[in-house]
Amino acid sequence: MLSRRKMLLQLTSAAALASSGCGTTAQWNEQVFTRADERFLDELERASFLFFRECAHPKTGLVKDRDKATGATNARVASIAATGFGLSAWCLADERKWVSRAEACDYALKTLRFIARELHHEHGFYFHFIDWATGERVWKCEVSSIDTAILLCGVLTCRAHFQDAEVRALASEIYDRADFDWMRNGGVTLTHGWKPESGFLNSRWSSYCELMMLYLLALGSNRHAISADAWHAWKRPKLNYAGEEFIYDPHAPLFIHQYSHAWFDFRDKRDIYADYFENSVKATRAHREFCASLSNEFPHYNRNFWGISASDSAKGYTVWGGPPRIGRIDGTLVPCAVAGSLPFLPRECAATLRLMRERFGDRIWKRYGFVDAFNPATAWVAPDVIGIDLGITLMMAENARTGFFNRTFMRNPEPTRGMQRAGFLF
Fold it and tell me: Residue 426's pLDDT is what?
């Protein structure tokens, strides 16, 4: 069965390359942005990084889940996902010389030491939310498979970036002890997580979303690799909207088309099912058109002013977006929805982000760049920023400009191995 899949992949990949001019849309976008775009994106990235510098604990390196947009407070709750983004962000800060190499390497070392030696894990997986000073579990949260995957992506980014033997050894130790087969709980697909009080969660990663990074890490594992059957087991439903047909999840917001691409480089690659980079391009175009279609309800929505994804709202954290319409959309705009799509629609996204800042200025741009969300119709502005939203903003802005995170992460052998085992051709 797998050999037939490989044969189909070869035929499909050859046809795709022949019809697309050898994948010209997958080139880095170094010539796409204007000088004004570049200045803006550099400022956006620097501001986003400041959160990961100021909201990481000085001893543990754990990064806060959220804090005030105006600056750090005494908030104590960290998340392992924000920490994964933070580990990645410090690599870029070193690369762009926003900090010294010594400071960046010291941050990586203290964080990796804490994760490897002190942070509680269950078969190599970590609690979603933790105290930033102690690493203790908070809110009786779950040991999260997807948030651990984000953490591991940050860990491997550090391993590839820093020329330091201890960084490399610690990163390998942390990644290698993740027992992906245990997280399957006897099934083919991976579960969402585990709780000490009740065991494995009932939900599984069984349909397209941000799950690709988790499965590819599992397939490429040195010690606990799972079979390729797991990659083929999850569903890939399709939607046709505004002339774009793409794989999607009818219940999930735009970020599902972004997160795996922050680290894994899907450009010029495909498996037997899809070119996932082009899939995200199509999903982003469709989302832009979807937002424009809501202009009768919210006149400020249009093709130049768009972007909805899971975010804060006037009524609390909300999962919303489309197409199809998800949640009670009220006119709120979410900057990270646009920034996270920069590699897919670089010109359009850069123009929208710049317009947001030009139009609303200091009302929505604070110490760490954009606030998490804002509503032009009601004048509501989120008081907070969220670590993962700033993380995807920073990483995808840089990937759109230089491909730094994709290139760095893919220097690790395990991501390539995972993609090859999933059936990708390079």
Answer: 79
